[in-house]
Amino acid sequence: MRAWIVFLVAGLGTYLLRASFILAGTAVTLPTWIERALRYVGPAVFAAIVAPPVLGDGGIAAAPDRVPEIVAVLAASLVAWRTGRVIWVLVVGMVALWVLRALGL
Fold first, then answer.
1. What's the CA gap between 88 and 65, in Å, rounded?
2. H helices of 25-85, where?
3. Residue with the larger pLDDT of the pair 24 and 37
4. What angle (nearest 5°) sits at the alpha carbon of residue 40, between those of residues 37 and 44?
């Protein structure tokens, strides 16, 4: 029973913290330097999520062993740059990865 109380209090606390930012978002204006910095949060988080599976545990040193992943990321990046459509980025990246793995690279 005590665990359920902890879960409920933690969930309520998380909800209230997130809701406070949403509700206060229109009343508070951030300095321009913070707004400029926040533009880079999304790409930085995306890179942090994508880099480890692409490069593996060895980091850039393991790059020769990860050729299909790196080529698929480069193909998907080109599609992202040219079209800006997320669905095409996912399709091209996954198809490139599957084809390169099927070829045994």
1. 26
2. 32-38, 41-55, 67-83
3. 37
4. 135
